[in-house]
Amino acid sequence: MRSHCIGKLFQRSFAYTYRLGKADAIPPPSVWPYIRSLTLYEQLKNPLLSPVLYIPSKGHEDVLFHAMNSMPQLRRVVVNETHGVPWPILAVLISVSHLREFELRGQLFNSRERSPRNPTSGSAPLASFRYIPDLLRPPPRSCPSEKRVLAIVLERLCTSLENVVLPSESAPFRAMNQWDWSRLRQLSIEGDARRAFRTREPLISVLSNMRGLRTLALKLAYSPEQRLQAIWPQDFEEGSLPWPDLESLTITWAYPQDRLFDHLPASLRHLSLRCWPRLHAYYIQHRKSVRNDVPWPERALPWRDLLDVLRRCRGAALERLELEYEVDTRDSDLELLQFIPHAFPCLRTLQIHRYRCYGNTSSVPLEAIIDALRPLAHLNVLRLFLDFELLAHWQRDRLYVSDEEIWEPVDATIEIVIRKAGPSLRYLCLLPSVTKPVRWDVYRLERSANGGVHAHLEDSLDTVGGYSNNSDD
Predict the structure, then answer these.
(1) How far apart are CA 32 and CA 266, in angstroms?
(2) For residue 39, which of 80, 70, 71 has the smallest C-alpha distance?
(3) How many CB atoms lie within 10 A of CB 44?
(4) Quick one: which H or E segment has residue 382?
(5) Hey, which residues does 458 pair with through a beta bridge?
(6) Quick one: 332 exposed, middle or buried, by C-beta within 10 A (0-12, 13-18, 19+)?
(7) β-strand pairing of 349-356 with 441-447
(8) In the chain, N or C terminus with fewer CB closer than 10 Å?
(9) pTM tops 0.85, yes or no
């Protein structure tokens, strides 16, 4: 019993990176056999007084190397570090032979350090490498030494990696199509679009050596003055899609003339055409005077551009579709909504973020929206964000909106869906507020024997239709 409890208690443990030279920095050796996941924290009380607090290089890598190699069940390491990880420590973290997952949140490499010239240490057969910096980090958002270090790491790990998350600002785009990515199945690139399109070759060529990809997410942010870029430009040489078995594709700020949409494979089951970050996130952050040197979008893609993109897609087998767009008049997007059942008859989950462009204070045509989607005979999950809250902000020019102003249109939406929804719909998910902790409200639709429909609020479901209910990333 004691052994069983110890295994459960210590399978997830943590250590403080700033105390690696201390005896209590890492969990005691008695629990090492049970640790499956290890999180390393940087504890920094006042970054203004201590701007260069990071793990000292000399000697401490030996402490970490011995400890991690003495944890036989260790499979996952998460590093929370705001000032970068010195190369000797990073080399240890990716060299433990039984490690399979590595995740770093914060800053990968300190700009004040030199990148290694002749690195000699080996690497573990990692299956997952995730580097997720702070979205609101101040410029410079990357540095040459970090780019070189990330290139060194990825070149060593690429043959075993199955899941990769990278920031666009540091990704080694110029070298990625030269490496062996034969096991890669999931790739997500997030960040400033300017860095992703700065290479000589288009992204379709940069990522062409990842033929086994099943999931591709390009979450690239555009500032208002940027021109949209094509992943597969019209003038790029003819060829076939390099990801023949792709099942999920996420594209931000879809360019209507992008040839990518003419070549989507029959295997595709999930398509997301959205903003990143979310447009409502920009609005709230802007009103709170939070950092404005991040390339936030100020508008969503016009609905007509999305319709042009969808008309180019072969999506008869598509099961999940996500759209984020804006409308200029009350019901101008009905042509788009009516096109969805015609082009994607097999949809099981549909998520829509629909905004009114600034100054458009017309009401949401709720009944017309549900009528347009009713022909979706297999739709199980409908997820809607209809910017009721943002509309109230714009109408009253103030940040605070009362609960009554938010919930009145939400209740109206539920009533209309209950009355008009097709027989296959099981869940209605609504995002009522984005100024409070983001949480989708999930309503389960139950049908009685006499044909009546009732909506019951579900509090226990973390995901519905493949999307999280606890965030709106």
Answers:
(1) 47
(2) 80
(3) 16
(4) strand 381-385
(5) 442
(6) middle
(7) unpaired
(8) N
(9) yes
